[in-house]
């Protein structure tokens, strides 16, 4: 599979973190602007490892200086969280949401980043800083619903977890979509969003498939973060979210999710 024209980025988090993130954006743990009540999900041992794994230059630092996104949805980590596999703390999928951004928006926002061709913790993964190297990622595996490694591909699980790392801070305007598990989670997200942001435009309900319903917010969403935070290009922290799409990901295959994002 060739490099996609539009490269979407996926980050999973607990829905309890949404309210803070809507106001302040996403920050690394050691930032003075980090969520003091951040609810960690997934493998807690990764926090220690990220402090020890060096990031490539020119961005530099260690993985703990970056906010990670997967290149594909429905990751092995989501399975571990939903099932409690390998002693990972279990959470109902209803409590897990996706923050969905795009490489195009990360670049246009002037953010520093690098990416890997597998899980960054794996010694078999390689880190890249040049977009020309995106062709070295296995996009068939990244978008596949099957990620178990076997004799035909010993790195399949690692490649499924190819990542993009954004340095220090991701402004909320870079989050273009929020994916949820069901309508209960959708309503919770809408209620948090409406209490924290002013919506300009109308709500349009669309039907994407039997497995997926979409709620598109037309117009622009605007809010003032408190306290004001510097933006990548300077100036005050008035974030603009051009469009928000909240959709249900339950039972959806990665290729269906990609087609919805493509419109």
Explained architecture:
By secondary structure, this protein is an alpha+beta fold. The chain has one domain (8-261). It is 23% helix and 26% strand. It contains eight helices and 15 strands. Strands 1-4-9-15-12-11 form a six-stranded mixed sheet, with helices on both faces. A hairpin with a 2-residue loop joins strand 11 and strand 12 (212-217). The chain is globular and about 45 Å long. The two termini are 20 Å apart.
Properties at a glance:
263 residues, 15 strands, alpha+beta, 4-stranded antiparallel sheet, 8 helices, 6-stranded mixed sheet
Give the secondary structure arrangement, pairings included.
Layout lengths: L7 E7 L3 H7 L1 E2 L17 H8 L13 E5 L5 H8 L12 E7 H6 L4 E4 L10 E2 L10 H4 L13 H5 L2 E5 L1 E2 L6 E4 L2 H14 L1 E3 L2 E7 L2 E6 L2 E5 L13 E4 L2 E5 L5 H8 L2
Helix pairs in contact: 1-7
Order of strands across the biggest sheet?
A: 1-4-9-15-12-11
Q: Structural class of the helices, strands and pairings? A: alpha+beta
The H-and-E topology, N to C, reads as EHEHEHEHEEHHEEEHEEEEEEH
Name the overall outline. globular
* Helical run tally: 8
Mean pLDDT: 76
Report the helical percentage.
Answer: 10-25%
Give the N-terminus to C-terminus distance in angstroms: 20 Å
Ranges where pLDDT stays below 50 over 5 or more residues in a row are 196-245
A few lines on this structure:
This protein has 263 residues and is an alpha+beta fold. The chain has 8 helices and 15 strands. The protein is globular.
